[in-house]
Design brief:
Layout: H1 9-14, H2 19-38, E1 42-43, E2 52-53, E3 57-63, E4 69-75, H3 79-91, E5 99-103, E6 108-112, E7 115-119, H4 125-139, H5 155-172, H6 179-198, E8 203-206, E9 214-216, E10 223-225, E11 230-233, H7 255-270, H8 274-297, H9 308-321
Antiparallel strand pairs: 1-3, 2-3, 3-4, 4-6, 5-6, 7-9, 8-11, 9-10
Length: 338
């Protein structure tokens, strides 16, 4: 008999916005049952609870036929989700969750089970920074050592695309923030993009390495990254997500200085260059702000729930690291948390 797995309400809401997404939702029970049967997995979900889910798919706790805890992850097919198992194969459990099985056609993976309640989001910041730095060092491997490296986008290509897209999006959205910040982001794209074209030091980069995407391993005190969104380029590209996390914990007396100090601490822990990380964060956060505002302007999009508060948070981080915090933004401790 097929297992009855409840689909999380959040996932139903996110993927009810288009016919393609609704079709995938309708296929999800069959995909789950197919994967459970293929890999001899049993559902390990307490009665009355929903599986976990993120923005891109469902994560179901399971057990293998020998009783080993694991999770079954099935993602909505996209360029991003199809690349995730390639990166996990390279890392092979070193700094990232271990990939046990995969089916590329169904975007299905069996992964080691981590402790969802022990992330770097909830441990002391000093420890979080130290652990994060160690994870980055483990993940920063050369893309030349694995066959799938050529399938990943290069951060230099991203910078080139942003050079065209950021000013166009800024204009289309009614020039929603000061021009000087847009120009600061474009300068980063030109500078770092040119360096990236000449770089022989590119590494595999987890581009969404915020504190909530690093979970503890139940068997010991170690941690592992999840949801990599892999790309290739300068390792400093990975710093930004940890700067839009845990902003309320910055010193109230001078949160701007505290943010820059956190950036410096992250770089020291991971052996990265502060100035390069600062530059990439400016560009990434300007892009994030424009994406939030575009989603808000198009209610039918998957992320239409994103509010002006998300954009304000991104603009606060970007302008603070650019040296001129936008005066019209809320104070740091009044920003929307993430």
């Amino acid at each position: 008999m097929a297992a009855v797995v409840p689909i999380p309400a959040d996932l139903l809401r996110r993927y009810a916005t288009s016919s393609v997404r609704r079709t995938w939702l309708a296929s999800l029970p069959g995909l789950l049952d197919k994967s459970l049967q293929r890999w001899n997995l049993s559902v390990d979900l307490p009665s009355g609870l929903e599986p976990w889910n993120g923005k891109t798919g469902i994560v179901l706790p399971v057990k293998s036929d020998d009783g080993t805890p694991a999770v079954l992850k099935i993602a909505f097919p996209s360029a991003e989700t199809r690349l995730e198992p390639l990166a996990l194969q390279v890392w092979d459990g070193h700094g990232a969750v271990r990939l046990l099985q995969r089916d590329a056609g169904d975007c299905a993976m069996v992964l080691e089970r981590l402790d969802a309640y022990r992330s770097l989001q909830v441990c002391p910041v000093d420890l979080a920074v130290e652990v994060w730095g160690g994870i980055v060092r483990l993940l920063s491997v050369s893309p030349n050592v694995w066959p799938g490296g050529s399938e990943l986008s290069n951060i230099a290509d991203t910078a080139e695309r942003w050079s065209d897209d950021l000013p166009a999006d800024w204009d289309e959205l009614g020039r929603p923030f000061d021009r000087w910040l847009l120009e600061a982001a474009l300068e980063v794209c030109q500078t770092r993009g040119a360096v990236g074209r000449r770089s022989s030091l590119d590494v595999l980069v987890h581009s969404d390495l915020h504190f909530m995407n690093i979970l503890g391993r139940p068997a010991d005190a170690s941690y592992a990254a999840i949801d990599p969104q892999p790309t290739v380029g300068e390792a400093e590209f990975a710093v930004a997500p940890c700067l839009w996390n845990r902003i309320p914990e910055l010193a109230r007396s001078d949160p701007q200085t505290a943010l820059r100090e956190r950036c410096a601490d992250l770089c020291a822990a991971a052996g990265l260059d502060y100035e390069i990380a600062r530059q990439w964060t400016i560009a990434r956060e300007v892009d994030n702000a424009l994406c939030y505002l575009a989603d808000r302007a198009h209610p039918g999009s998957m992320n239409s729930g994103s509010s002006a508060g998300d954009a304000q948070r991104s603009l606060w981080v970007a302008s603070t690291l650019a040296g001129r915090t936008l005066s019209w933004l809320p104070a740091a401790h009044e920003l929307k948390t993430l």
